């Protein structure tokens, strides 16, 4: 844990030291506004990383523990199955950066060949070796500052009490609430994005589309419309001859009119209107007579038979 934490904070000559410093130095060597912003934000993140890493070490190995004594009875070293990979990773954290820096990211190295192609105007690795010494030492100073603040806040009793009093004060509680709630990003996301998505999924997608439009246009609407149309059509079978004659005359007149005037009507009547007419007929005829909410047979329920 100690080796991994020290490598994570970029302790000098460990693997994390070389990778972290190269990233920040290359960002600064671009000499652009975005590069400078990335460099200084990265340096602040280095201080924060050093703070929580040293805090972990102090609270684990040096500061008085707050755990129950019954839990201390089960504390033991890592078993070989876990210890062997940790030892291998620890050796890599100690030696890999020091031994492989020039081979992997050194100026002029051909280790990667053409697998990582960089355009000539983006070659700032050599320029990063020539930045001012102050900018080279800033990440190291940020590491030391973060570790020092972690030591003062968490280990000495006097500073720990001061930190505790600051945390239970009014300003400390508000700051703790803001940080503990991750600057209210989760609340904003849940209230404006997550809840909106859930409302859309229930109200629009499921209630109005799946159980509304698609049901009326789909199997439920067709299943309700065809029996109803059949009943209406069956009423035309009155058995009176002059009724049939009127229907045939109207149908013949309509057919002749469509054939004669089709060249004119095809520019006026869009064929897509037929689909709109069918959907409108379903919504205006099927739903008022056989609503989804009031149809118990659709839900698998049966109406009680009156005695």
Please provide a written account of the structure.
73% of the residues lie in helices and 0% in strands. With 307 residues, the protein is mainly α. Mean pLDDT is 80; it is low at 289-304.
Span between N and C termini? 81 Å
Give the overall silhouette: elongated
Specify the helix fraction band: over 70%
Provide the succession of SSEs. Answer: HHHHHHHHHHHHH
What structural class do you assign from the helix and strand content? mainly alpha
Q: How many strand elements?
A: 0
Beta-strand share of residues: under 5%
In a few lines, what is going on in this structure?
With 307 residues, the protein is mainly alpha-helical.
Structural descriptors:
mainly alpha, single chain, 307 residues
Layout of helices and strands, plus pairs?
Layout: H1 2-8, H2 15-29, H3 33-62, H4 69-72, H5 80-105, H6 125-128, H7 133-154, H8 157-168, H9 170-180, H10 185-217, H11 219-235, H12 241-265, H13 272-289
Helix pairs in contact: 1-3, 2-3, 2-5, 3-7, 8-9, 10-11, 11-13
């Amino acid at each position: 844990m100690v080796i991994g934490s020290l490598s994570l904070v970029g302790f000098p000559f460990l693997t994390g030291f070389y990778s972290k410093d190269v990233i920040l130095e290359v960002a600064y060597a671009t000499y652009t506004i975005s590069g400078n912003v990335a460099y200084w934000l990265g340096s602040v993140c280095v201080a924060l990383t050093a703070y929580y890493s040293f805090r972990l070490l102090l609270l684990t190995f040096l500061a008085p523990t707050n755990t129950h004594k019954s839990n201390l009875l089960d504390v033991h070293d890592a078993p070989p199955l876990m210890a062997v990979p940790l030892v291998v990773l620890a050796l890599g954290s100690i030696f890999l950066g020091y031994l492989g820096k020039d081979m992997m990211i050194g100026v002029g190295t051909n280790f990667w060949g053409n697998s990582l192609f960089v355009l000539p105007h983006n070659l700032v690795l050599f320029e990063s070796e020539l930045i001012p010494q102050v900018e080279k030492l800033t990440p190291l100073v940020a590491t030391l500052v973060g570790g020092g603040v972690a030591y003062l806040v968490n280990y000495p009793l006097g500073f720990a009490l001061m930190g505790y009093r600051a945390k239970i004060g009014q300003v400390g509680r508000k700051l703790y609430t803001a940080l503990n709630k991750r600057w209210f990003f989760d609340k904003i996301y849940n209230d404006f994005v997550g809840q909106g998505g859930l409302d859309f999924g229930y109200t629009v997608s499921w209630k109005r589309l799946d159980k509304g439009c698609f049901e009326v246009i789909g199997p439920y609407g067709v299943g309700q419309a065809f029996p109803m149309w059949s009943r209406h059509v069956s009423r035309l079978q009155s058995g009176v001859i002059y009724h049939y004659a009127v229907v045939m005359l109207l149908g013949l007149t309509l057919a002749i009119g469509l054939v004669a005037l089709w060249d004119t009507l095809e520019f006026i009547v869009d064929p897509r209107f037929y689909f709109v007419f069918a959907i409108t007929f379903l919504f205006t005829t099927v739903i008022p007579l056989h609503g989804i909410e009031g149809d118990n047979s659709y839900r698998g329920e049966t109406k009680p038979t009156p005695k």
